């Protein structure tokens, strides 16, 4: 079945550091890929998405490119802020009304 | 803009007790979902409803039942709670067939003693 594997955390960074969170997937067909973010005490919210190979999703300074050849969708941000501290989830949709989520990566940014 | 509303936000149960988690969305979405979130395991799908009048099992349905009461409401019932059901439960909805963007509620933290 469809599945997502993302790098384990926790990740601790200083402000203005570069952030990368790796995500790889296994799926039949051509899934859509997503990054969701969960701030403390809140539900998940969509950060960005890509629906086909080579698409780049971007939002709030975060970017991720759908790489079909490496089955990856790594999340990057060039200069993180304290407000980026959150749990980040990679997810995929295989077109059957369901999303499959990775385990989540906790990111803490120190001032 | 309420979005997805879940109640209660916190609940403590004793083993064997029953309870229902309520979820309502005001975005006219067709699809609704119940997930549980456990440390190190991400979100796992319990049940989903692709459209009003239909429900289907997800990854971890055992010990749960659901009701799609109408297009707005999707409830999750624990008939006989077990400590293994201690978790944070999230309801979500989606307006696009095939998954698309999910909109989540704030979560319900359930502890079973």
What is the overall silhouette of chain A? globular
Global morphology of chain B: globular
Helical fraction of chain B = under 10%
Please summarize the sheet with the most strands of chain B. Answer: 7 strands, mixed
Strand content of chain B: over 45%
How many distinct helices of chain B?
A: 0
Mean pLDDT of chain B: 92
Please tell me about this protein's structure:
By secondary structure, chain A is mainly beta. Helix content of chain A is 0%, strand content 51%. Chain A contains no helices and 12 strands. In chain A, strand 10 (86-93) and strand 11 (99-101) form a beta hairpin. In chain B, the strands form 2 sheets. In chain B, strands 2, 4, 5, 6, 9, 10 and 11 form a 7-stranded mixed sheet that branches. A 4-stranded antiparallel sheet of chain B has the order 1-3-8-7, with no helix packed on it. In chain B, strand 7 (64-68) and strand 8 (74-78) form a beta hairpin. In chain B, 35% of the residues are buried. Chain A binds chain B through residues 32, 34, 36, 41-46, 49, 89, 93-104, and chain B through 4, 31, 33, 35, 40-45, 48, 50, 58, 90, 92, 94, 97-102, 104-107.
What attributes characterize this protein structure?
heterodimer; A: 111 residues; mainly beta; four-stranded antiparallel beta sheet; B: 113 residues; seven-stranded mixed beta sheet; 51% strand
In short:
The complex is a heterodimer of chains A (111) and B (113). Chain A has 111 residues and is an all-beta fold.
Secondary-structure topology with pairs:
The complex is a heterodimer of chains A (111) and B (113).
Chain A: E1 3-6, E2 11-14, E3 19-21, E4 23-26, E5 32-38, E6 44-50, E7 56-59, E8 62-65, E9 75-77, E10 86-93, E11 99-101, E12 105-110
Parallel strand pairs in A: 2-12
Antiparallel strand pairs in A: 1-4, 3-9, 5-6, 5-10, 7-8, 8-9, 10-11, 10-12
Chain B: E1 4-7, E2 10-13, E3 19-25, E4 31-38, E5 42-49, E6 56-57, E7 64-68, E8 74-78, E9 87-94, E10 103-104, E11 108-112
Parallel strand pairs in B: 2-11
Antiparallel strand pairs in B: 1-3, 3-8, 4-5, 4-9, 5-6, 7-8, 9-10, 9-11
């Amino acid at each position: 079945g469809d599945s997502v594997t993302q790098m384990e955390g926790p990740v601790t960074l200083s402000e203005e550091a570069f952030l990368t969170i790796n995500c790889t997937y296994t799926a039949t067909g051509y899934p859509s890929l997503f990054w969701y973010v969960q701030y403390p005490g809140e539900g998940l919210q969509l950060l960005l998405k890509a629906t086909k190979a080579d698409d780049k999703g971007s939002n709030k300074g975060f970017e991720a490119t759908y790489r079909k050849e490496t089955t990856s969708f790594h999340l990057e941000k060039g200069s993180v802020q304290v407000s980026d501290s959150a749990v980040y989830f990679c997810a995929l949709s295989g077109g059957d009304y369901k999303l499959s989520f990775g385990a989540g990566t906790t990111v803490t940014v120190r001032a | 803009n309420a979005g997805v509303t879940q109640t209660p936000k916190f609940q403590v149960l004793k083993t064997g007790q029953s309870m229902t988690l309520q979820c309502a969305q005001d975005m006219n979405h067709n699809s609704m979902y119940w997930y549980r979130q456990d440390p190190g395991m991400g979100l796992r799908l319990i049940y989903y409803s692709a459209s009003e009048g239909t429900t289907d099992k997800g990854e971890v349905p055992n010990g749960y039942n659901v009701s799609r009461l109408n297009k707005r409401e999707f409830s999750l019932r624990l008939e006989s709670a077990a400590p293994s059901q201690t978790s944070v439960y999230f309801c979500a909805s989606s307006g696009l067939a095939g998954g698309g963007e999910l909109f989540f509620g704030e979560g319900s933290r359930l502890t079973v003693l």
